[in-house]
């Protein structure tokens, strides 16, 4: 889960503005905004709401910022695990066939 500061940074970068521009929009100093992004300062509810409004987001949408990738990553990991399990099953089947062929060859001798 992303921190509030990470969400602020993601939104600012999506908007294509620097910290000075965001600080100006929020009517705070650049250092004050920087501290919000880095997590040095914990924002109060009204500041979070203000930042969400600047980005034209509801609070729910704001809270979901940056979390899309997490579920996408989980899906990718699950797909990879499924593929690994399939490959392991294939290897086991091939090993079994190889053993059978070896046994047949030994019986012919």
Describe the structure in your own words.
The chain is mostly helical and about 110 residues long. It has two domains: about 5-65, lambda repressor-like DNA-binding domains (434 Repressor (Amino-terminal Domain), Orthogonal Bundle); about 70-109. It has helices spanning about 5-15, 20-25, 30-40, 45-55, 60-65, 70-109. The chain is rod-shaped. About 5% of the residues are buried. The model has no long low-confidence stretch (mean pLDDT about 90).
Q: How are the SSEs ordered, and which strands pair?
A:
Layout: H1 4-15, H2 19-26, H3 30-38, H4 45-54, H5 59-64, H6 68-108
Question: What would you say about this model in short?
Answer:
The longest helix has 41 residues, at 68-108. The protein is mainly alpha-helical and 109 residues long.
């Amino acid at each position: 889960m992303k921190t509030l500061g990470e969400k602020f940074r993601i939104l600012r970068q999506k908007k294509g503005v620097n910290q000075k521009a965001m600080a100006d929009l929020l009517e705070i100093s650049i250092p004050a905004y920087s501290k919000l992004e880095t997590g040095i300062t914990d924002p109060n509810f009204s500041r979070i709401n203000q930042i969400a409004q600047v980005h034209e987001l509801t609070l729910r949408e704001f809270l979901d910022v940056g979390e899309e990738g997490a579920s996408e990553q989980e899906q990718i990991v699950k797909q990879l695990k499924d593929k690994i399990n399939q490959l392991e099953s294939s290897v086991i089947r091939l090993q079994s066939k190889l053993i059978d062929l070896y046994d047949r060859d030994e019986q012919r001798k």
